[in-house]
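Worked example 4.2. Below are the chains of a multi-component assembly; read each line carefully before continuing.
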Amino acid sequence: DAGVIQSPRHEVTEMGQEVTLRCKPISGHNSLFWYRQTMMRGLELLIYFNNNVPIDDSGMPEDRFSAKMPNASFSTLKIQPSEPRDSAVYFCASSPMVAGWYGYTFGSGTRLTVV
Amino acid sequence: DQQVKQNSPSLSVQEGRISILNCDYTNSMFDYFLWYKKYPAEGPTFLISISSIKDKNEDGRFTVFLNKSAKHLSLHIVPSQPGDSAVYFCAASGENSGYALNFGKGTSLLVTP
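Applying the procedure described above to all two chains together yields the following structure tokens:
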């Protein structure tokens, strides 16, 4: 298995532009998670899906952030409009179930820089 | 509010010695705890876990200890090796979080030869 695949690996964009991050989870995993890593807050959970349905988006910082999972093999995280404070590494993870004891498999992340 | 806290941003240890990474949590509903390891430019990878019904779990050079009354867990690495240099994240899971993992800010471990 190729693992969790994220694209792009790096994204540099100007403030105000729309940014779309993509994720392909491991086949057969029913739960998908979006995390953001910053120095100040560490790894914070933004949103997670179970069976393609958003379960908890309370971690999404603002209405500028939105996430979708149109099918079991693809998810997007969109920021519109982007701001410099959105600069961070964004990770996608997948798991057979939501429960943490199954362990999450993380992608390599997308490093976003908003200038 | 941060429910999983790693109060030491960094730790430096000599090769061969013991590394002890600490983690505190505030939510008494957490019942499963994990440690993840992260190298630069890679995603976090699972290292070791412990259920709240245990107070110790060992896997080779890695041991996790859980003190439920103190809401504290620690990761011991013995002996430490230069390849252990990475960022270590503590994570917790419980019913009131929908069982999704809550992570701490991480501790950067440097093992020097």
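Take a moment to check your reading of the output against the notes. The CA atoms of residues 2 and 26 of chain A lie 8 Å apart. DSSP finds no helices and eleven strands in chain A.
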